[in-house]
Design a protein that fits this description.
Order of helices and strands: EHEEHEEHEHHHEHEHHHEEHHEHHEE
Radius of gyration: 23 Å
Structural class: alpha/beta
Shape: flat
Strand order of the largest sheet: 2-3-5-1-6-7-8
Length: 366
């Protein structure tokens, strides 16, 4: 299983429609990309990347392997989920397993689609979801705090630090502040991270809007959500789940014309995929040649030997050097030999920190 983004939201906000569009896209891509497969509630989707496309045009490889990200459809949440209402326990355990959260929020009016609260209020919806996650987190923090207080009686400084951290977090959660919005010192943050709290997961909002609100300032509902997100330093991606379903159902050859008719450059789903990728602070490097162009996903700050290890453990174990060309230089100059002649190919050692968009050939000896 790859990196996972959980799609969460109240019932009837467009969450399942979005996931079905994700799943259709994954199925459509499966013939071209071997790692794009479908499991019962997981859509494994290629990350849209113009750099990858440019390298494919340059090499015309036999095989193409894009970076991918997994989207997990998580059961719709209802009030009381933290106490097991609805499918609450399944919902919350599924969230615990994902790396990031795409919180789908309804920002459209439609009398044919009944809202669980009988009114469209994005901030009320966000509050409902957060309240349930916070209640579940409070249970975990209380257990950890009880244990830390007992251990602190022995007088160890690290146990006292843990108590201080947990008391701060408990107080803030009790006030309705999610863990990822609590300001903590590095030492305190490290302690909290080990609890794997639901509200500590990186989160972005997916505003499900009417077609008319995809452009410009948008309607009052999406404006309200975007203003709230700004106070949290969170990202909002606007989509129309209904339009995404239509796009996903069309043959590839007809999608461009349909998008143009809506004055869209690409499906909104692309923005959702990129947001998940960026939220997890991931970057991409490439291996490229006539046999294969392959995009590899690594965490920002990864050094060359560890990046090589993504390809094969032997590459990391026997790492000698990395021959690196930035993708733009390679595409503009047209070949590796031209890049070498122009002084654009660098020989890097074990301390080299990989850049987003590097095209690499690793030298190793085992």
């Amino acid at each position: 299983m790859g990196l996972q983004v959980g799609i969460v939201g109240l019932p009837n906000v467009g969450k399942s429609t979005l996931f079905n569009a994700v799943s259709t896209t994954a199925k459509a891509e499966a013939a071209n990309y071997p790692f794009c497969t479908i499991e019962p509630n997981v859509g494994i989707v290629p990350v849209p990347d113009d750099r990858f496309d440019a390298l494919v045009r340059l090499y015309k490889p036999v095989k193409e392997v894009r970076a991918t990200i997994d989207f997990v459809d998580i059961a719709g949440l209802v009030r009381g989920a933290s106490k097991g209402e609805g499918r609450g326990n399944a919902f919350l355990s599924n969230i615990r397993e994902v790396d990031a959260i795409a919180h789908v929020v309804r920002c459209f009016e439609d009398e044919q689609v009944i809202h669980v609260s009988n009114k469209v209020d994005p901030l009320d919806d966000v509050s409902t979801i957060e309240a349930e996650l916070i209640l579940k987190d409070l249970d975990g923090v209380d257990r950890a705090l009880d244990k830390a207080r007992k251990q602190a009686r022995a007088g160890k400084p690290e146990d006292k630090v843990a108590v201080d951290a947990l008391e701060i977090v408990r107080a803030k959660l009790d006030q309705g502040t999610p863990a990822n919005a609590i300001v903590l010192s590095d030492d305190h943050r490290k302690i909290v991270r080990n609890l794997f709290l639901l509200t500590d997961k990186p989160t972005f909002f997916v505003a499900n809007v009417a077609e008319a609100d995809l452009h410009g300032a948008g309607g009052p509902h999406v404006q309200k959500l975007e203003a709230f997100a700004k106070t949290r330093g969170m990202r909002v991606v606007r989509i129309s789940a209904a339009i995404e379903s239509e796009i996903a159902a069309l043959p590839k050859s007809e999608q461009g014309e349909f998008l143009a008719s809506l004055d869209l450059k690409e499906p909104g789903l692309h923005g959702v995929v990129r947001a998940g990728y960026e939220l997890l602070d991931l970057i991409t490097f490439f291996t490229a040649g006539d046999p294969e162009v392959h995009a590899w996903t690594i965490a920002r700050g990864t050094k060359a030997p560890q990046a090589a290890g993504k390809i094969h453990t032997d590459f990391e174990r026997g790492f000698i050097k990395a021959e690196v060309i930035h993708w733009k230089d390679l595409v503009e100059l047209g070949s590796e030999s031209a890049a070498r002649s122009a002084g654009k190919l660098a020989i890097e050692g074990k301390d080299y920190v990989m850049r987003d968009g590097d095209v690499v050939h690793f030298r190793f000896n085992v």
